[in-house]
Specification:
The structure holds two protein chains of two kinds. By secondary structure, chain A is mainly β. Chain A is built from no helices and twelve strands. In chain A, 0% of the residues lie in helices and 53% in strands. The chains are: A mainly beta, B mainly beta.
Amino acid sequence: AQSVTQPDIHITVSEGASLELRCNYSYGATPYLFWYVQSPGQGLQLLLKYFSGDTLVQGIKGFEAEFKRSQSSFNLRKPSVHWSDAAEYFCAVGSNDYKLSFGAGTTVTVRA
Amino acid sequence: DADVTQTPRNRITKTGKRIMLECSQTKGHDRMYWYRQDPGLGLRLIYYSFDVKDINKGEISDGYSVSRQAQAKFSLSLESAIPNQTALYFCATSPSGNYGYTFGSGTRLTVV
């Protein structure tokens, strides 16, 4: 069965600084990988996804993620964080029957 | 109107009470899902339905039941609520053969 680990429960970053959120997955086949963001009181919104091809994927809101098969990782990055990026971020892996398994989430706090 | 609507948004109930959470969608998606979110645990799948006549248990189905009344409606019931079912519950939909998930805004349930 697939699983996802997000090692960082909480990250605090200054506005304008770079951000990297870690995600490690376990899956026997080629993984389908996703990053979602949850703002307070909202549902989950898809930031980006990786299915195949270029291992560096671009998403919405200036986010990008890099798939590294050798490290079983799919880390999310943003070069310059805005206060509106404060939210909870979830990494997820998809199964062959299109179900998603989520990590525990990383809460991002942005300080002025 | 939202694509995926969950009612109620918030609910406080007493231990032992029966409660139903409702989800309706206007996306026309075949598949519907119920997840619960707990701090530090991420989203865990309770039940999912690939079409009206196909309902499946997820990883944490004990204590829950579901009903798929129509393609657009998927309800989650707690027959006898207990305090450790206090959580944020999300409904989601997706098309068949596709990872295009749409999430509702969540129902915050507190069992006292």
